[in-house]
Amino acid sequence: MAKTSKATKKFNKKHLKKTLEKRNKAKEYKRRIGNKKALREEKAKNRANGRSAKDGEVFDDMDLEKYFEKKVEVPSVKTKKGSKLGKKSKEEEKSKGEESELEIESESDSKAGSDAESESGAEMEMDKQDLEDLKKEDPEFYKYLKDNDKDLLDFNPVNPMDMVSSDEDDEDKEEAEKEDKDKDKEKTQLEVEVTIEMVKSWEKNMMQEKPSIKGIKQAAMAFKAAVNSETDREYRYKVSSGPVFNLLMMVVLKKLPLAIERLSPYKKDARGSRKLGSTSKKLNGRICTIVKLHSTSLLELLDGISKTEMAILVLQSTQELFPYIMSWRKILKILINSVVQVWASSGDFETQVAAFAFLNNVSHEYPKAVLEISLRSMYSGFVKNCRRTNVHTIPSINFQKNSMAELYGEDESLGYRVGFENIRQLAIHLRESVNNPTKESYKAVYNWQVCNALDFWSRMLCLRCNPEAELKSSVKKGRKSGTESPLRQLIYPLVQVTIGTIRLVPSAQFFPLRFYLVRSLIRLSQATGVFIPLFPLISEILTSSVFTKKPRASSLAAVDFDSCIKVNKAYIGTRVYQSGVCDEFIELCAEFFALYCKSIAFPELITPPVIYLRRFRKRKGGNLKFSKQLGTLIDKLNANAKYIESRRATVQYGPSNTQEVSKFLQDVEWEKTPLGAYVKTQREVKEAKMKILRDSLEKEEEEERKREQEKGEGEEEREGDEDASEDDEDGNEDVDMDSDEE
Predict the structure, then answer these.
(1) d(CA 340, CA 317)
(2) Are strands 192-193 and 266-268 parallel, antiparallel or unpaired?
(3) φ, ψ of residue 215 in degrees (nearest 5)
């Protein structure tokens, strides 16, 4: 059976009854006028044959039997009551017709549309002559039809589908008019100016034991309008006064979370996590609507926040509402991303601390729902915003690294998964650059984003994989004492990627990058106790053009190796750059060997490096200052080796006894060893030099800003003078014109 079309169903539902009524009226009209057309044809035929149609001559042309076989026409009775009788019979026929037609339509709905289309056109095609005859023969009935049913006299065929389309157009017009009325109604409601009295009434409502939900919603709507006041969007409330805006901000941010908590209080579980209590579904639904409305306002406020006090207030208010926001996963993710953006891009240290405190608290409170989002979003935001690294941004970037590393201790298995994915991504970039050695592929690796990412992972592993942290984690997680952290498995791949990055481009121009990553590996080796052979990476620079070629004098400023990963080509071959590289070499060598200054195997560890350094020192044409520095370093290494040999001469165990070996010189501080004291002094000297260098850089930048400011003020003064001179010229022209007229 064919499927009934949508148009047919709609016709059956809305237009079938009207069509049946119109069809029955047409049938009634046909019954009333009878077969007058056939009579006219017969009369015309008789006239053509020369016979009159008189009553007395009826039997002359035919037999009696044929006469009675012929259909007899009953003449219409002309009476004053005819119209009433006709009307009554019409109504009876109409009801019978409706019953029969409705029975047929109930049997087959799909036939109704097509039958209405075919029959209505055929039954309604009537002659205008029939109307004229009806007007002559029965003027009263014609008048009745004209007064009561004008549509019946109009026998133009009508397509039911046209009726449907016309009705649809009428419905569209009604809907459009309704929308216009709603818009006009909304516009009248938008012009509600928020006053201080309104804000105070909302505050009073929020301080009640059972605050009104309507008042809370009004305050939230006004808050949303205030937050989006600079946009083109229209809202019911309007905030145009500064004092009202400030008061509304304070009231809503401080009081609204408390009012929500009174209406739907939460409970704390064993972990201290806040869980919503049981309240009525209707109340919960209305509260959720308000919280969802308010959370979007908080997101708008976080995106454009600039003041530290306001940022702290917004974050505290958001944290109080956080159990209610947990219902919407999408809003939750957007909220975490917005807070991360504040943490990563804010130039104010206190704002960064407040943003991290929020992320840290919600991640510890809801680790399953928030921790993974926070870890991934923070790393992504950190990598995006560390592209610009200099003397001024380094403290902020270091804070981001250290604070982000704190969250990886909450769930070390999750931290391992996130860390492995990101270190693997760094390895993919490195492999593509090695396999396709082009300038663009090198740029994809040799940039601050990759260097800061590698340094972050080393800091995170230093924090989570040192013996003390692993012991605390074992106790907290209920693991056996001495069990290693799952994050320790990331050390080897990280070291491999870092060494591959260092050796990708062994150019003197990228020595700062080499020094930066070597420091990162030294820190990792010191914290985790993993031995990383770094001396070959450091000693490779001795074979570069910086030492093999005679340097030239230059007036360039000294290089700050802590805040750059690449130097300008103008520095290559200069004495100032060679001097900086020599200082870095001595420092890194001393820092590396200082890691093992208390090791029982220190004498054997330094033997190959000392031989190599002595040979390099004997080479002719070298830098005298650097030669003296190398001599001092070699002497300190030998002195520390003798110190270790003297202390291990008294031990009663061999190298196979690892427990006793690990306790060797355990009670001695590393600064009291010969090499340790030397490194401590070198650090103090470097710190003093770096302070002087940074102060000079800051002074230069400040002077440059002043020059730019003075330059801008000078341009403004010149523009003002030009405008004044133009005005004077216009005045002179006016005077000349007046004199001419005179």
Answers:
(1) 16
(2) unpaired
(3) -65, -40
Q: Where are the domains of the chain?
A: 15-35+73-164, 544-651+668-699
Candidates 522, 523, 543, 541; CA nearest to 533 is 522
Burial-class residue 354 by CB neighbours within 10 Å (0-12, 13-18, 19+): buried
Please give the angle made by the CA atoms of 334, 335 and 340, to the nearest 5 degrees: 95
Please tell me whether residue 274 adopts helix, strand or coil conformation. strand
The residue among 504, 513, 498 whose CA lies nearest residue 563 is: 513
Within 10 angstroms of residue 170's Cβ, the number of other Cβ atoms is 10
The amino acid at residue 533 is P
Task: Using a pLDDT cut of 70, give the percent of the chain over it.
Answer: 71
CA–CA distance, 339 with 355 (Å, rounded to integer): 6
- Alpha carbon 149 to its chain centroid, in Å, reads 65
Instruction: Give exposure, 512-549, as e/b (b: 16+ Cβ within 10 Å).
Output: bbbbbbbbbbbbbbbbbeeebebbebbbebbeeebbee
- Which tens digits make up the pLDDT trace of 249-283? 999 999 999 998 888 888 877 777 888 766 655 56
Average pLDDT of the chain to the nearest whole number: 78
The single-letter DSSP state of residue 543 is G
Distance CA 114, CA 131 (A): 28
Q: Which pLDDT score is estimated for 238?
A: 86
Query: Which residue from 514, 674, 676 is spatially nearest to 591, judged by alpha carbons?
Result: 676
Look at the chain and count its residues: 742
Give me the long-range contacts of 72-77 (CB less than 8 A, separation at least 24): 73/34, 73/35, 73/39, 76/34, 76/137, 76/138
Within 13 A of 694's CA, how many CA atoms are on the CB side? 15
Cα gap 453→520, rounded to integer Å: 11
Q: 194-217, pLDDT tens digit by residue? A: 889 999 999 999 998 888 889 999
Q: What is the dihedral of CA 16, 18, 21, 26, to 10 degrees?
A: -100
β-strands 237-238, 274-276 pairing = unpaired
Radius of gyration of the chain measured on its C-alpha atoms:
48
